[in-house]
Amino acid sequence: MIRVENLAKAFTRSGKGFWKRGSSETVQAVGNVSFTAADGQITGLLGANGAGKTTSLRMIAALLKQDTGQVLVDGVAVQAGEQRTQAQMGVLSDARGLYPRLSARENIVYYGVLHGMTPDEANSRVDALAEILDLKKLIERRCDGFSQGEKMKTALARALVHDPQNIILDEPTNGLDVVATRALREFLRWLRSPQGGSKCIIFSTHIMQEVERLCDHVVVIAHGVTVAQGTVAQLLEQAQESDFENAFVKLAFAAAHRNAA
Amino acid sequence: MKNIFIIARKELIDALRDRRTMLMVFVITLLGMPFMMVVLSESANRYETQIEKKQIWVAGMRNAPVLQNYIERQGYSIREAPADYEQQLQTKNLIDPVLVIAPDFQDKLAAGERPAVDIVMDVANQDSQTGVRPLKLLLQGFNSEAAGLNLAMRGVSPDILNVVEVRERHLSRSADSGAQLKSALSLMLMLTMVSAGLYAAIDTSAGERERGSLEPLMMTPVSSWEFTTGKWMAVGALTMLVVVFSVLSIFPAAYLVRNETVRIMMQFSISELTLMILVLLPLALAITAVQIAIAINGKSHKEAQARCTVLVVAAPLVSMVGLFKQGADPLWFKWVPLLGQNQLMGKILNNEVVSMADMLIPVLSCTLITFVALWYVSKKLRTVLM
Q: Which residue of B has its CA nearest to A156?
């Protein structure tokens, strides 16, 4: 379970002085984000481009230090730059680079071993993930010439190799075709189920369809602030709309107008 | 500890599969040293043959039969210079200086006036300059012989012109080219070290950032210190390998040397080569650590490469500081990486005694630099992502 409480983060772009052009400005990337992602649930972070989804996820993944607020992963507070909570997390961030000169298997096993698995354990886990993600044909190939989708799947397998309880996925369907997207959706549903381990899954996206089809709990973020949360049905009701896209626009942008005013 | 080896192993496999890294390694180790030796031996060869061949180029020899007689008596053969000798000297078709004799030489000499002769050479033509000294000596000899005869005819002893008798005794004819060769060898090894692991060091730090694999890596429960050490060990191993091979390649390279003097200089014993390797290894490891520390701030290969150029340029410059000092080396030389090693290499190449303290001081400074650089990298690994 992941609890996020009053998270905030501002970036300062330096300016002034002799070499730095322009004046310095502070960008409030995340203003106040709070939500709870329960085990056995898929929690969707929904927001427009630049709403602060990725920044929030990076803070949850201990890659970025928050200004205020805290993140609790299974009750343990996340400290940026420390790797205490990372064993329980599988993160697929927007940086999903692979080693081009290593095979897909070598890429994934390397991470498994770094997570404390034995090479044998990691290898058998790779076989299982390759089966599920339809990677079997290219698992022994070097990643050099992989397509966007193939890279994506390999990176996903890498993030999940140590069978983490908490899974954080930043726009995982980017670059995937319809078939692959469906397969991924199936896989996430299985991970959520008791057979799959009742994982706690946080999933960021700006695609409404995905949220509608997949998420048990939706957190709408606009301009760095949590503006609404609940199930898809609850959000529709709150916005008094029948179409989810309309509901999202209403919730996200009406709130922004309120904030601006 | 286990993690460090896992990381080092992966980085090493990655580097060995990288064409750029391996090309650098092979070109430097297999070709660098032999190439340098052949070039040096050829230049030494040329210098020696030029001195030994006893042949001079003259324009207008028939204007000076007396001089011709003297030159031939000294065992020199005279060759008539081509008409366009000035141009040929400039284009380096002619590699010896040319002695030009005016048509009125004989008349002036007979009249007791001082006829002038010109030695023509091109300053840009290195070879033509080496021939100037023998030619001057020859003309001086003619001068004193003619003057001596003139005095003798007037009943004066020719010794009145030579108050002091000057004699040259050369202790070692090869000393000059030897020193040049030694400093070139030392410089070559320093350059090898700086460039050998460069690509691997960049790939392991800035490369990770560029391809977006550093972030997932930092999400594993492995400490930055372990990552830094593992990466450093892999690149360091590669650099050390190159150093060992470069030093060992002195053996086969010696076969390519045609010049006798150079070949004698290149005869090192196994223990001397081992000592050289021992001197260079700590430096190789320190350089690797510094390279990674510089490269980690680069967001891309290209940026890191630009940053690391500073090191590639600075390394030979630092080792050259030793060339500009006069007299004995100051004490602080020992503590400066590259300078200290250069100094030690010089001692080994000159067969001087190297004490334990001489060896340990550079090791100490290299260890210190390595630790500082690695500490910096481990701090940076996670913060560059924030």
A: B216
Task: Determine, yes or no, domain membership for A117.
Answer: no
Residues 6+ apart with CB under 8 A from A180: A134, A149, A152, A153
Question: DSSP labels for B40-108?
Answer: HHHHHHHHHHHHHS-EEEEESGGG-HHHHHHHHHTT-EEEEPPTTHHHHHHTTS--S-EEEE-TTHHHH
Within a domain: A155:
no
Interface with chain A: mutation pick from B203, B204, B219, B225, highest number of A CBs within 10 Å: B219
In a domain, B12, yes or no: yes
Which one of B13, B214, B220, B226 makes the best mutation probe of the A interface by having the most chain A beta carbons within 10 Å?
A: B220
Distance CA B254, CA B262 (A): 9
Question: Hey, are the CB atoms on A158 and B216 less than 8 Å from each other?
Answer: yes
Q: Nearest-CA neighbor of B146 among B157, B160, B158, B155?
A: B158
Say yes or no for a CB contact (<8 Å) between B221 and A110.
no
DSSP A21-84: -S--EEEEEEEEEEEEE-TTEEEEEEE-TTSSHHHHHHHHTTSS--SEEEEEETTEEP-TT--S
CA-nearest residue to A96 within chain B is B212
For the purposes of burial, counting CB atoms within 10 Å of the CB of B310, is it exposed (0-12), middle (13-18) or buried (19 or more)? Answer: exposed
* Torsion, Cα of A166, A170, A176, A178 (10° steps): 70
Which residue among B7, B212, B222 sits closest to A95, beta carbon to beta carbon?
Answer: B212
Domain count, chain B: 2
Residues B17 and B59 in one domain: no
Give, as one character, the DSSP assignment of residue B27: I
Confidence of residue B168 (pLDDT cuts 50, 70, 90): low
Smallest CA–CA distance, residue B288 to chain A, in Å, is 21
Angle ∠(A204,A205,A210) on CA atoms, nearest 5: 115
Candidates A101, A249, A76, A235; CA nearest to A165 is A76
* Domain of A49, in residue numbers: 2-99+165-260
Task: Give the position of tokens 């030979």.
Answer: B316
**pLDDT bracket for residue B178 (50, 70, 90):** low
Q: Return mean pLDDT, chain B.
A: 84
Give all strands (DSSP E) within chain A, no chain letters: 2-13, 25-37, 41-47, 68-73, 76-77, 89-92, 166-170, 200-205, 217-222, 225-230
> Per the domain annotation, does B167 fall within a domain?
no
Contact B28, B242 (CB under 8 A): yes
CA angle B186, B187, B189 (to 5 degrees): 65
Cα–Cα distances (Å) from B320 to B44, B123, B183, B244, in that order, read 22, 25, 9, 23
pLDDT tens-digit series, residues A235-260: 999 888 888 888 988 888 876 566 65
Query: By CB neighbour count within 10 A (0-12 exposed, 13-18 middle, 19+ buried), where does B213 fall?
Result: buried
Q: How close does chain B come to A91, measured CA to CA in Å?
A: 7
* Mutation target vs B (from A101, A115, A162; most B CBs, 10 A cutoff): A101
What's B74's domain CATH number? Answer: 3.40.190
- Full-model pTM: 0.80
- The token pair at B114 is 């001082």
A145-199 pLDDT, tens digit each: 898 888 988 999 999 999 999 999 988 887 778 888 888 888 899 999 998 889 9
Tokens of A78: 């996340």
If one counts the domains in chain A, the total is 1
In a domain, A113, yes or no: no
Strand order in the sheet with B98-101: B77-80, B55-59, B98-101, B117-120
